[in-house]
Amino acid sequence: MAVVKVYDQNKQECGEITLNSDVFGVEVRPEILNLVVRAQLAAKRAGTHSTKTRAFVSGGGVKPWKQKGTGRARSGSNRSPIWRGGAVVFGPQPRDYSFKVNSKVRALALKMALSSRVTSEGLLVVKAIELPEAKTKHFAKVAADLGLTKALVITADENQTLTLSARNIPGITLTTPERLSVYEILKHKQLVILENAVEPVQARFVK
Length: 207
Description:
It is built from seven helices and six strands; from the N terminus they run E-E-H-H-H-E-H-E-H-E-H-E-H. It has 207 residues and is an alpha/beta fold. It folds into two domains: 2-45 and 98-203, Ribosomal protein L4/L1 (Ribosomal Protein L4, Chain: A), CATH 3.40.1370; 47-96, no CATH class. It has helices at residues 21-24, 30-44, 103-119, 136-146, 160-166, 182-187, 195-203; strands at residues 2-7, 13-19, 123-126, 151-154, 172-175, 190-194. It is elongated and about 95 Å long. It has a six-stranded mixed beta sheet with strand order 2-1-3-6-4-5, with helices on both faces. Helix 4 (136-146) packs across helix 5 (160-166).
């Protein structure tokens, strides 16, 4: 079990919390993280790119000119790929880029991502973040006090005040335990977990 300090929103130490080593103490294997991140990014690709082959280019119903006697190269269709306005050869076609990753591997990668922030000292547990109103300046002050530059903040549930206050601050992203992803954790150098969100995060993996 890893014991980490708990801070208030002014970064004053106010206690300690014990983290489950089965979630926050897993050995990091880069190849598994790479696999899961590639799968997440591939699933986001629209795959709607398309080019017209000879079957879809208009025209081509008649031979442009006779086969011999004109002095020009023979040609059978104005849909030829070498003609201006003709078809595209081996061009991109609509496709699905996603590929399957086993659920156990995805869960393991998520635990590795969380553990990587503990080992790199990029994890910060905050007792709570309370703002008087939904204003960017209030959250910006808290972020400055906590020393946040590029951070993923995990709250126990959706908090409209925090969401509205943080959405215009570059580098700060809010999420909940249910929406945690390996890519989001690794994209941010700092991981901030509110104290009441630690148990829901651990509950995703520990039965």
